[in-house]
């Protein structure tokens, strides 16, 4: 008996090598079944309004459904059932079929936040499947996934970045001492870049003081702060071009100090360009052609376009896109997010609670309006998710990767109902199940 188990264990070490040729044959065969895919826009409806009994919620838009009304599954869940709690949902990050949403209870003036956590929502089953507790009073803001095991979350009120163990759903480390109201975060070439708006509200004087704003650079392998880069007043959104450039949008003080774009070389972590915007900018988003779309201010409405690659304006503050080419009456203001197919999604929240909340889709080639979706109160945050069959995600961690294949190999030959590696549901784990996982990689 011991010899049998020894041989089985020894053989299992080489099993992945033996199945590779078989997997290849099936994967390249067009006759083999395809994994079903669903494309979604995930919308955070961020309005909390106790007087109107409105709490923050989540809506889903089926991008494969041509009917605009049927496509929206509105307010499928709320982040709090207590209208007086004023639960704030301020960020959104997608990993496979799981959405990670930082939240906290909006405090009364001068009090620390409470109920700080990251909700985990299964977008396929449309339910909350877990929470990651964050230190109360920290006010978590934005998330970036470092790898399958680790994420960073910026915590503005605590002036910290928390390191989270994804599988165990817990904070394992707190990075501090280098941050001032950290908010935005982006990941490029093994480094995380954090924007620090560095403002402080004085409730007695009823005014905001702005300190020196910086971008903090973190080595994600060691969690060590490498550098702090001074930037103009009130650094907010921060993103990257996928190659070597970090893009920082600063807002100014909403008065006499206006906004800027700051371009940082991610190889040297030095500023290579600072562009005056001549306005207080709104939302921004970068497309695959490295063109940055920026919402103008109320004084100069419309969309500006800056070419990051050439460091030049395509549409500046004096030449904005002020309306849709085929519907001038539809608002073009709001939050900006580019879809994988290049279309621009514009969230238009109604912060008064009047129900006039929309997501509009623009074809940026001719600035035409393609779709209009009616969503929930305060619809302001949007991201995209591609949902695949959850059965292929054997360990149910939100993504299908080599770990699922390794786990499934351990069940080869097992028979019976309810086996996690039985992807096709035929009550036996065999090469067909491995192929289905392989297709979804």
How would you characterize the overall build of this protein?
This protein is mostly beta strands and 441 residues long. It has two domains: 2-35 and 400-440, no CATH class; 37-388, YVTN repeat-like/Quinoprotein amine dehydrogenase (Methylamine Dehydrogenase, Chain H, 7 Propeller). It contains four helices and 31 strands. Strands 4, 5, 6, 7 and 8 form a five-stranded antiparallel beta sheet that branches. A four-stranded antiparallel beta sheet has the order 3-2-1-31. α1 crosses α4.
CATH topology-level name of the largest domain? Methylamine Dehydrogenase, Chain H
Question: Strand content of the residues, in percent?
Answer: 35-45%
Give unreliable regions as ranges: 1-12
Count of helix runs: 4
Rg, rounded, reads 24 Å
Determine the mean pLDDT. 90
Overall number of domains: 2
Distance between the termini: 37 Å
Instruction: Tell me roughly what share of residues is in helical segments.
Output: 10-25%
**Sheet/helix structural class:** mainly beta
Shape: globular
> What's the count of strands?
31
CATH architecture descriptor name of the largest domain: 7 Propeller
* Main sheet record: 5 strands, antiparallel
Q: Spell out the CATH superfamily of the largest domain.
A: YVTN repeat-like/Quinoprotein amine dehydrogenase
- CATH class call of the largest domain: Mainly Beta
């Amino acid at each position: 008996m011991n010899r049998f188990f020894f041989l089985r264990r020894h053989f299992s070490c080489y099993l992945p090598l033996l199945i590779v040729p078989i997997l290849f044959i099936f994967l390249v065969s067009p006759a083999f079944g395809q994994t079903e895919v669903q494309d979604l826009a995930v919308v955070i409806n961020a309005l909390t309004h106790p007087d109107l009994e409105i709490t923050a919620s989540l809506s889903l838009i089926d991008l494969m459904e041509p009917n605009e009304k049927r496509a929206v599954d509105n307010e499928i869940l709320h982040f709090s059932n207590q209208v007086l709690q004023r639960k704030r949902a301020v960020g959104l990050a997608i990993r496979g079929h799981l959405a990670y949403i930082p939240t906290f209870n909006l405090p009364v003036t001068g009090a620390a936040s409470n109920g700080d956590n990251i909700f985990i929502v299964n977008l396929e089953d449309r339910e909350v499947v877990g929470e990651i507790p964050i230190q109360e009073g920290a006010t978590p803001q934005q998330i970036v996934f470092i790898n399958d095991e680790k994420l960073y979350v910026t915590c503005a009120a605590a002036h910290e970045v928390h390191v989270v163990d994804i599988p165990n759903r817990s904070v394992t480390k707190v990075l501090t001492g280098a941050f001032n109201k950290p908010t935005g975060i982006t990941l490029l070439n093994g480094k995380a870049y954090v924007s620090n708006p560095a403002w402080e509200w004085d409730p007695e004087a009823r005014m905001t003081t702005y300190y020196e704003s910086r971008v903090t650079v973190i080595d994600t392998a060691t969690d060590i702060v490498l550098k702090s880069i001074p930037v103009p007043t009130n650094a907010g959104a921060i993103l990257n071009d996928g190659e070597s450039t970090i893009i920082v949008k600063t807002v100014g003080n909403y008065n006499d100090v206006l906004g800027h774009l700051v371009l940082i070389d991610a190889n040297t972590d030095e500023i290579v360009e600072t562009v005056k915007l001549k306005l207080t900018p709104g939302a921004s988003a970068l497309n695959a052609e490295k063109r940055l779309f920026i919402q103008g201010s109320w004084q100069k409405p419309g969309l500006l376009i800056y070419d990051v690659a050439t460091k030049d304006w395509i549409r500046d503050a004096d030449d904005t896109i002020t309306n849709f080419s085929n519907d001038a009456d539809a608002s073009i203001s709001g939050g900006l997010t580019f879809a994988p197919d290049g279309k621009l999604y514009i969230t238009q929240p109604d912060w008064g609670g009047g129900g006039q909340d929309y997501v509009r889709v623009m074809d940026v080639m001719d600035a035409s309006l393609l779709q209009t979706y009616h969503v929930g109160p305060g619809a302001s945050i949007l991201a995209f998710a591609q949902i695949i069959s959850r059965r292929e995600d054997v360990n149910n961690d939100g993504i299908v990767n080599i770990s699922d294949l390794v786990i499934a190999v351990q069940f080869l030959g097992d028979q019976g109902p309810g086996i996690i590696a039985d992807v096709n549901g035929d009550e036996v784990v065999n090469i067909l199940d491995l192929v289905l996982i392989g297709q979804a990689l």
